[in-house]
Design a protein that fits this description.
alpha/beta, D-Maltodextrin-Binding Protein, domain 2, 2 domains
Length: 274
């Protein structure tokens, strides 16, 4: 009788344990990346911003180091990468709506973190200000955004980007010209429609290297923004699924692989825009 009374609870506990184990296995099988694997495609939301993400207008082919990371992560998952063209104004909303699985080259900000999750950074980002060194509107010895926040000065920036948010919060007097693409902001400064190009420091470095006779860039002090650049991920992604992306990036950053991808992307931009 005593043995029977002991065995019955043990048997019940075994059934509960088996049920919990089965539930855990089912939950794991329903993880986000398992669903991506079942679909056979990793959809990457891509807004153009050289050297992070570039798109050949003739072929539609994507390049840039974040496009490369998309392909490499797809390879890890053993699926095909698919690039979904979007804009910086829509790159958060599209991820929220499930139009793609990850957003490429997102700056980590508190406002965005309330809407989406982030991987660890693939690189660090800051904003610089590029301009014509002979522009009489630009005061000599300018070191801060405040030094350039003047009546009659126009600053060109890509609409909806982290640099748009940052410069909009910092500028009180100068005019902000918001344009949809990187090419249009550059053209605005080249054509003198705008005086200052507000962009990521590495992107502005490409601009000044392409126009060495007149273009210079200023990293303002204090910094206008310093943020990590990462994959944007769905807000409801589990911690385990986020960790999959983090481990993928951690190894590539630590080994210098991401630095090599960045260098290759920079060379591509300079070769295309000598």
């Amino acid at each position: 009788m005593l043995i029977t009374r002991i065995l019955k609870p043990m048997a019940a506990a075994a059934v509960v344990a088996a049920a919990l184990s089965g539930a855990a296995a089912a939950q794991a099988a329903d993880g986000y990346w398992q669903k991506v694997q079942a679909a056979g495609t990793l959809r990457c939301g891509a807004a153009v911003a050289p050297p992070y993400v570039m798109r050949d207008p003739a072929s539609g082919e994507y390049s840039g180091f974040f496009a490369d990371l998309c392909r490499e992560f797809a390879e890890v998952l053993e699926v095909q990468p698919e690039f979904v063209d979007t804009t910086w104004d829509n790159i958060i909303a599209g991820l929220q709506a499930g139009k793609w699985d990850v957003s490429l080259a997102l700056n980590r900000t508190p406002a965005r973190a309330m809407a989406v999750q982030f991987s660890i950074p693939a690189m660090e980002y800051q904003i610089s200000l590029a301009y014509n060194k002979d522009n009489p509107k630009i005061p000599a010895g300018a070191v801060s955004v405040a030094d350039l926040d003047l009546e009659g000065v126009t600053m060109a920036v890509m609409s909806g980007t982290a640099q748009d948010k940052a410069i909009s919060a910092a500028v009180k007097t100068a005019t902000i010209l918001r344009l949809p693409t990187n090419d249009e902001t550059r053209l605005a400064v080249i054509s003198k429609r705008a005086d200052i190009l507000v962009d990521a420091s590495d992107t502005n470095q490409l601009f000044t290297q392409s126009n060495p006779d007149w273009a210079v860039a200023l990293n303002p002090a204090p910094a206008l923004a310093k943020q990590g650049v990462a994959f944007g991920l769905p807000h409801d992604l589990s911690a385990a699924d986020v960790e999959v992306v983090n481990i993928f990036l951690e190894e590539r950053v630590a080994t210098g692989h991401v630095d090599a991808l960045i260098a290759r992307a920079v060379d591509e931009v300079l070769a295309t825009n000598p």
